[in-house]
Amino acid sequence: MVTLTTDFGTQDGFVGAMKGVILSLAPGTLVVDITHEVPPQSVWDAAFALEAACPYFPDGTVHVAVVDPGVGGERRALIFRTRRYFLVGPDSGVFSLLLERDPPVRAVSIENRKLMLPKVSATFHGRDVFAPTAAHLVRGVPLERFGPEVDDWVCLSLPSPGRKGDIVVGRVVHVDRFGNLMTNVRREHLPFPPEEVEVQVGGVGMRIYPAYAFVARGAPLALFGSTGRLEVAVREGSAREALGAGEGEEVYIRATMRRAR
Questions:
Q1: How far apart are CA 172 and CA 203, in angstroms?
Q2: Same domain, residue pair 6 and 51
Q3: What is the pLDDT of residue 257?
């Protein structure tokens, strides 16, 4: 199985070309689209999409991600072999969040021209390099055939939550299409049980609830989302619009007055 994550959109034929290459070299391969709506050149948005989806695919899946601001330059093309998956894409940090969960066992630089398409475009490595690489991996071509091992690569990292006295200070690191504000705070960062803290964003305070249904329509709330991160949301609305907050906004988490006493 191969998955594809790109910023290509679906209006043009780029995704179709990649699928055509994979199916020509490895007929019968199941190719699954994770998303092609990553904002152009937004490596972080792609990393969050991969973090949310890839852990639910079966072991042995080949995950291809092409969000590639450096295409045609000196950036490397890499394969990561983790305990569960093969990850194929540019050395842009796009797999950083996945590799935190599932560290690489091996990594190689894709350099063997015989395993690429005969003519490699300077602007479409998704079709000419990454798609054939995925197909050859599905067919069982060993990693050492693709190129030399590497032990360094671009690694993006989220800032860790800080502390100001008894207050945990987090940050909005991603905004999804619903306007939910994803933070760098996980449950283990909270000094108190979730039901005993208040979350404040943009001067608006709210409590942590298990789900949206616990508040009225249009009311703000915080909750731990499906990826385990603390999220700020508005029921049936957009927290980004309602709170005027976006990426980089600080999030304050403190004990409620009852707990503080």
A1: 14
A2: yes
A3: 57
